[in-house]
Write a structure and sequence with these properties.
It comes from Rhodovarius crocodyli. GO terms for molecular function: unfolded protein binding. This protein is mainly α. It has a domain of 142 residues: Protein Binding, DinI Protein, Chain A, CATH 3.30.910. The chain has five helices and two strands, in the order αβαααβα. The chain has a two-stranded parallel sheet.
Length: 261
């Protein structure tokens, strides 16, 4: 009976081994060589396959480049500009030899000199009044001192206002005369340029080197003195409140300077 029991156990072990053998073999093969098909077993996905890298941000999809608009059709051929004929003008030299410009400069200098003389006399009178007040202060009451100080301050304020108005009137008179000068100069430059068939006029500061025939300065200065021997300078106290803007005489680097001392 014991042998019979042992035989049953052995047969069970053998049968179990026959059944579990292929399963163990498949498991070992899958662990040793993953990713390959094993006959009689189930195909497993490869464990060592590539995975998306972690920690690296994925680049966003780039938008397609915008299509450039089509180029506009070419314009029809136009008229070609004429060949350049250049003339050169020295504006400061013209101002120096102009009789009208010299007359304006001298008149403004006389008015400024008179203004300075009057200002000096008025300032001296202010100082004398201050000294007199300091000398008499001991014999004056507080109210009298305040009254005289206030009167002196009002006198100084009013005088300063008048002198500022006179200085402004001189500047406005110079601007009005300058407008007349520049208009005449522009007309003469155009006349001389047309007589020489010049179609481009450049100021002297823009030119580094040129031949003498290109220089129109002397001819323009002579013609300007014939056209405008004297300029009109408004009388003192009659200058316009806002002098009109000077008309450009010719393309140049700097406008004509107002006559000054």
């Amino acid at each position: 009976m014991t042998q019979t029991l042992i035989g049953r156990v052995l047969r069970a072990v053998v049968v179990t081994g026959l059944i579990a053998g292929p399963v163990l073999t498949q498991t070992a093969s899958a662990q040793q060589d993953p990713g390959f098909f094993v006959p009689g077993g189930q195909q497993r996905p490869a464990q060592g396959g590539q995975r998306p890298a972690q920690g690296q941000p994925q680049r966003p999809a780039q938008a397609p480049a915008a299509q450039r608009p089509a180029a506009p059709p070419p314009l029809p051929a136009g008229q070609a500009p004429p060949a350049p004929v250049i003339g050169i003008v020295d504006i400061p030299e013209i101002q120096r030899v102009s009789t009208a410009f010299t007359q304006v400069r001298e008149e403004l200098e006389r008015r400024r000199a008179r203004l300075n003389e009057d200002l000096q006399r008025e300032q001296n009178s202010w100082r004398e009044a201050q000294q007199a007040l300091a000398t008499e202060r001991a014999g004056l009451s507080a109210d009298q001192i305040r009254t005289r100080e206030r009167d002196l301050q009002d006198r100084i304020t009013e005088s300063q206002r008048q002198f500022r108005n006179r200085a402004q009137a001189i500047e406005q008179a110079g601007q009005a005369a300058l407008v007349e000068f520049e208009r005449a100069l522009g007309t003469v430059i155009r006349q001389v340029a047309q007589s020489r068939s010049v179609n481009i006029v450049l100021p002297r500061p823009l030119v580094i080197l040129n031949e003498p025939p290109f220089d129109l300065t002397e001819e323009i200065a002579q013609q300007l003195n014939r056209v405008l021997p004297r300029a009109t300078v408004p009388a003192e106290g009659a200058a316009p409140a806002n002098a009109p803007a000077a008309a450009p005489a010719t393309p140049r680097q700097q406008p004509a300077q107002q006559p000054r001392r």
